[in-house]
Design goal:
The complex is a heterodimer of chains A (480) and B (252). Chain A is 28% helix and 28% strand. In chain A, helix 2 runs antiparallel to helix 3. Chain A has a domain at 147-475. Chain A has helices spanning 4-11, 34-43, 48-63, 102-111, 115-122, 132-146, 153-159, 161-167, 178-186, 211-214, 427-435, 440-451, 453-456, 461-475; strands at 149-152, 191-195, 205-206, 221-226, 231-237, 248-249, 252-257, 262-269, 283-292, 298-305, 310-313, 316-319, 325-334, 339-348, 354-363, 368-377, 385-394, 400-409, 415-424. In chain A, the strands form two sheets. In chain A, strands 1, 2, 4, 6, 7, 9, 11, 12, 14, 16 and 18 form an eleven-stranded mixed sheet that branches. Chain A has an eight-stranded parallel sheet with strand order 3-5-8-10-13-15-17-19. By secondary structure, chain B is an alpha/beta fold. Chain B has a single domain, classed as 3-Layer(aba) Sandwich (Rossmann fold), CATH 3.40.50. In chain B, strand 1 (5-14) and strand 2 form a beta hairpin. Chain B is globular, with a radius of gyration of 18 Å. The chains are: A alpha/beta (480), B alpha/beta (252). At the A-B interface, helix 11 and helix 12 of A face helix 2, strand 7 and helix 3 of B.
């Protein structure tokens, strides 16, 4: 918590922070072909291996079809109408918060977002009141002293090509799926983290305080490598509602944990879900996967998903090293016409591997909320264990919750437990709260927060507080 | 003096079934009333209706709390104005700690009464003092509300909430059920400490047990949806001795 004010200051000024990349202000015409990819690669001044890899991905992409198995519906996406390279869009600059949609300001206020940060999010020109450069420098110095590399992936491609070549696509190959393949061909930026052997990263790494993350565009690529005996906690996202011109987002996140390494990856996602009729919302088709390559390694995914019109996302763990552990803690809230198809895959390959899945789905309005899970214990995964708890809470009588668990046990010694519940907020609980003087809306948020507690307690403190407020705001009007 | 509670000719149906049929009751500040009656006489329906449970329909009659008509009021509004119901079966809310719930309730009521809400530190001091009075362990604060609580713990928790919320009128629905003697005594001590010349109490009970510890001023007997007989503090013992059929004869 003590870092919070510093981070707040930093966020308010990150336009001038030290992470900026050199992107020229031109863009490619809409459409995707080899020339587009060569252009992206050239703009990024990438080494030869990158352009080759991108082109191979593109060739493969041409041979595959968009998947349609997810329980979501949307009009066809026209991939040739997207501009795959453009300079970060400058939002129209406003002169003061008075010019911002009052509805948005009200949301910022409820989320407790500091004023200067509100200005930045809403696209108001921010005065440089804080000495942000020194804060940025302090962060960079601390990380450098520890030997941790944390930079835009476009920078890593140039500065650390060997690391990138060794690890990029090693967890999510470009052949993995349609959207990951497209991302491999055209990604423009994202984050790169490398934590060397024996290092415990001295701070929580957050894309939130880096301006590049704000403008990585629709095809974001993140790669995190934790060498032997290292630890890193990475926070992604922002609780403020993020609007974006780009409707399709197809990100790829790859995590690699070597012997005894631990990676904790937390996400708070609140992208624009569209209006009450579901118009204009973001499609968030993400591939997130971690490999526990080393013995005793551990990867934890924690996600709070409240935004996007459509979410399609399965943060997964491949447990290769003996005794490695995978965890997935998720809260997915859908309201109005939002659709979420999310869950996880736990692939047990090594012996004595364990995994935990705690998934909480909350469906309100006319939304559809699906949990999709795979637990696969391979023949070598002796004494592997999984515990899955999958709870759905439905508000009102128009929302739908679905659960699709898939369990593949390929050896006798595996121990797999699955618990699932579906419930509604009971009238008795509501009346009890209201009889004590708590308003109906506060009562719902209290009960829903209780429902999500197991997941919230996995979040870093300041994120947990944000997550609670976020649910409150997103539940507004969920019960009429 | 304005009565705390004034119920006139109350008729209530649940799913078209007549449960309360012309009930009258007036409670003035400082008074403790008890309503006794056999199972199925409509006691719990009455307590829910008074607390404005949305599932119960008032067909006719009136309910005034503190001089105000509350038939159109929401449950939280009544609570904020100082009406408290101790539930017969307090419901569990998984994942919501007792301290979170208590603070939300107390500050909800304080805000409505234009009092400064407690901050976390102040609240802990206030709540810990009351808990000590009721002999409740501190770990209780951090457990999920009513989840896995014993019968005695649930009822002590209800009384703790009453003492924290400082209502004008407390309705205690079968607060003695499921309590052993020690728990009954500490609950009764809590209720007695709550009594003063401005507050009213309505004890709703099947047996006279609690009434041995919390002596009411006025005792009513409820049967078939109305109060058929009213007496003094000696009435519970007469009922215990002679049964409800005797009361029925007296009433006729």
């Amino acid at each position: 918590m003590s870092k919070q004010p510093e981070i707040d200051d930093f966020v308010g000024n990150s336009y001038s922070a030290g992470f900026s990349t050199d992107i020229e202000s031109d863009s490619a015409p809409p459409g995707l072909n080899e020339d587009t990819i060569r252009l992206i690669s050239a703009k990024k001044q990438e080494p030869e291996f990158m352009v080759e890899w991108r082109l191979k991905a593109y060739e493969h992409w041409l041979t595959i079809k968009e998947p349609n198995w997810a329980k979501v519906q949307h009009p066809p996406i026209s991939y040739q109408d997207i501009s795959y390279y453009s300079a970060p869009k400058q939002k129209p600059k406003l002169n003061s918060l008075d010019e911002v949609d009052p509805e948005i300001l009200r949301t910022y206020e409820k989320l407790g977002i500091p004023l200067h940060e509100q200005k930045m999010l809403a696209g108001v020109a921010v005065d440089a009141v804080f000495d942000s450069v020194s804060v940025a420098t302090t962060f960079k110095e601390n990380l450098a002293a520890a030997g941790v590399i944390f930079c835009p992936i476009s920078e890593a491609v140039q500065k650390y090509p060997d690391l990138v070549q060794q690890y990029l696509g090693s967890v999510v190959p470009y052949t993995d799926n349609y959207f990951a393949c497209l991302n491999s061909a055209v990604f423009t930026d994202g984050s790169f983290v490398f934590v060397p052997k024996g290092v415990r990263c001295p701070m929580e790494l957050s894309t939130y305080f880096r301006i590049n993350a704000m403008n990585t565009g629709q095809f974001e690529r993140t790669l995190i490598i934790a060498e032997d005996d290292s630890y890193v906690s990475y926070l992604e996202g922002c609780s403020a509602p993020m609007r974006d011109e780009n409707q399709l987002h197809a990100a790829v996140v790859e995590l690699v944990a070597l012997n005894n390494a631990q990676i904790k990856y937390s996400t708070v996602q609140n992208w624009y879900p569209g209006d009450k009729e579901g118009k204009g919302g973001i499609y968030n088709f993400v591939t997130k996967r971690g490999q526990c390559r080393g013995k005793n390694s551990k990867i934890s995914w924690t996600q709070i998903e409240t935004g996007s019109a459509i979410t399609w996302k399965y943060p997964s763990c491949v447990l290769m090293g003996d005794n490695s552990q995978g965890e997935f803690y998720s809260v997915a809230l859908t309201n109005n016409l939002q659709q979420a198809d999310t869950g996880t895959k736990m692939i047990h390959i090594g012996a004595n591997t364990t995994s935990t899945i705690i998934a909480k789905g909350i469906a309100a309005g006319h939304s559809s909320n699906t949990f999709r899970g795979l637990v696969d214990t391979g023949p070598r995964a002796r004494n592997s264990r999984n515990f899955t708890q999958c709870d759905s809470l439905i508000l009102g009588d128009k929302a739908a919750a679905h659960t699709f668990p898939n369990i593949k046990a390929k050896n006798q010694s595996a121990n797999i437990e699955h618990e699932a519940t579906t419930s509604k907020i009971s009238e008795d609980q509501l009346f009890y709260c209201r009889q004590r003087g708590i308003s109906e809306e506060d009562a719902i948020s209290l009960i829903v927060n209780g429902f999500c507690k197991q997941v919230f307690q996995e979040l870093p403190m300041e994120f947990a507080v944000e997550a609670q407020k976020l649910l409150e705001v997103n539940l507004e009007g969920a019960i009429g | 003096m304005t009565p705390l509670l004034e119920v006139k000719d109350l008729v209530v149906t649940v799913e078209d079934k007549l449960i309360i049929n012309g009930l009258n009751l007036t409670i003035k500040p400082g008074e403790s009333h008890a309503i006794m009656g056999p199972n199925g006489s409509g006691k719990t329906t009455l307590s829910n209706v008074l607390a404005r449970h949305p599932d119960y329909t008032v067909k006719s009659g009136s309910i005034r709390f503190n001089g105000q008509d509350i038939l159109e009021s929401e449950p939280e509004e009544c609570a904020q104005q100082g009406l408290f119901l101790s539930f017969q079966y307090p419901v569990a809310i998984p994942g919501v700690s007792n301290v979170t719930f208590l603070k939300a309730a107390v500050n909800g009521v304080r805000k409505a009464q234009s009092k400064q809400p407690y901050d976390a530190v102040e609240f802990l001091q206030v709540v810990k003092k009351k808990m000590a009075e009721l002999q409740i362990d501190e770990d209780f604060l951090y457990r999920s509300i009513n989840e896995g609580f014993s019968g005695g713990e649930k009822k002590r928790n209800e009384i703790l909430q009453m003492l924290l919320l400082e209502p004008k009128l407390a309705i205690l629905d079968e607060t003695d059920s499921g309590l052993d003697v020690d728990a009954l005594r500490s609950v009764a001590d809590g209720v007695n400490s709550f009594r003063n010349s401005e507050r009213g109490i309505l004890l709703i009970t099947h047996y006279q047990r609690l009434l041995d510890y919390v002596t009411p001023d006025i005792v009513h007997v409820m049967m078939d949806g109305k109060l058929i007989f009213t007496g003094g503090k000696e009435l519970p013992h007469q009922i215990e001795e002679k049964g409800y059929s005797w009361v029925k004869e007296q009433a006729e």
